UniProtKB/TrEMBL annotation:
Chain spans, region Disordered: 263-300, 312-341
Protein's name according to its UniProt entry: Gliding motility-associated lipoprotein GldK
Leader sequence residues: 1-22
Keyword Flavoprotein tagged: no
Top-rank taxon, per record: Bacteria
PANTHER family given in the database record: FORMYLGLYCINE-GENERATING ENZYME (PTHR23150:SF19), SULFATASE MODIFYING FACTOR 1, 2 (PTHR23150)
Keywords, ordered alphabetically: Lipoprotein, Signal
Record InterPro entries: CTDL_fold, Sulfatase_Mod_Factor_Kinase, SUMF_dom, SUMF_sf
Length: 341
């Protein structure tokens, strides 16, 4: 399949790579010893069986943390089944094997997608790859200091060719929107709406009552110091942290999870019955204003008190649909009982 259109996130990474080529950056994909998880927690194997949730009404959003999360809206969703954990590398590998699927990050890059003359594109950006978190050793609040486009990074080699293979029980990452939809079609599910996801994640609690260390997040001064007091420096296998009241693991933290809603800052108060978000033409992501981003939820192992207090069910951001990163994954919902097995 052709590679999807790369959005502004890729273009900004290209700009960062240009800076790197000019001598301002440096460093490659982390080596295996640098990315090994601390692993202080017991991580029981979690069943894949989806959880049935009856429909209901809840208060969606928050108004006292980030502007894009409000206003709080009384929201009703119908019932559905949902994966108990983020889709894992083991599950995605079964799909790839059965469908002979090749992900966007493994496909050739079309130079025309950058909308700049070819000689202005860093050569590495024209190689298949993905964006890998590569922490700087100095304080920074510029994301181009910690995101690096790594040729050869993809779901099978999440840190790039020089790093370890994907761990079967960790969430699959480095997928574009099209990859997730292809997996969903194969698995008989679909990507949840933001409302379904937040209803499942909040499980009857207000979002603000979730404590950061109940989820795989970042303790310390992001991006250059992680105290790892929650047991993992980076991504964790699914199921290492206690489930929420719905029996769902890692809804908050570990990896951000993609929903089917296009992103706009804030919630439309009038759209309260099984909302599906704005239409594509109304999507607006201040981070990527020229691309209709999808909404991601729940924060990741990179969310820290000093940078990204998004280890909560109400948290939301836009995400470039054309390119994966090492901190974004997904899980599925189902409109009927999934087949056994
Ligand atoms: Ca952590
Ligand atoms: Ca998650």
């Amino acid at each position: 399949m052709p590679r999807s259109t790369l959005g502004p996130f890729a273009a900004l990474l290209a700009a960062a790579s240009l800076a790197a080529l000019a001598g301002c950056g440096g460093g490659g994909a982390p080596q295996a010893k640098e990315v090994a998880a601390a692993g202080a927690r017991a991580c029981p194997r979690i069943a894949d069986t989806p959880v049935r949730l009856a429909g209901g009404t809840f208060d969606m959003g928050e108004e006292d943390v980030y502007d894009e999360e409000g206003p709080v809206r009384t929201t009703t969703v119908g019932g559905f089944w949902i994966d108990p954990h983020e889709v894992t590398n083991r599950q995605f590998a079964a799909f790839v094997k059965a469908a002979h699927y090749v992900t966007v990050a493994e496909n050739p890059v079309d130079a025309k997608q950058f909308n700049v003359p070819a000689d202005q594109i860093p050569p590495d950006m024209l190689k298949p790859g993905s964006a890998v978190f590569t922490p700087p050793d100095f304080p920074s609040n510029r994301y181009t200091d910690w995101w690096k486009y790594v040729p050869g990074a993809n779901w099978k080699k999440p840190y790039g060719p020089g790093g370890p293979d994907a761990v079967p029980n960790e969430p699959v990452v480095h997928l574009a929107w099209d990859d997730m939809v292809a997996y969903a079609q194969w698995a008989g599910g679909r990507i949840p709406t933001e409302a379904e996801w937040e209803y499942a994640a909040s499980a009857g609690q207000r979002s603000k009552n979730i404590q950061p260390e109940e989820a795989n997040s970042w303790q310390g001064a992001f991006p250059n110091y992680n105290a790892e007091t929650d047991g993992f420096k980076g991504v964790a296998p699914v199921g290492c942290y206690k489930p929420n009241a719905n029996g769902l693991y890692d809804m908050v933290g570990n990896v951000w999870e993609v929903t089917s809603d296009f992103f706009r800052p804030g919630h439309d108060p009038k759209d309260s019955k099984d909302p599906k978000g704005p239409d594509e033409g109304s999507a607006y992501d201040p981070f990527s204003p020229d691309t209709p981003s999808r909404t991601v939820k729940g924060g990741s192992y990179l969310c820290a008190p000093n940078y990204c207090q998004r280890y909560r069910p109400a948290s939301r951001q836009g995400r470039d649909p054309g390119m994966g990163t090492s901190n974004v994954g997904f899980r599925l919902v189902y409109d009927r009982p999934p087949a056994a097995g």
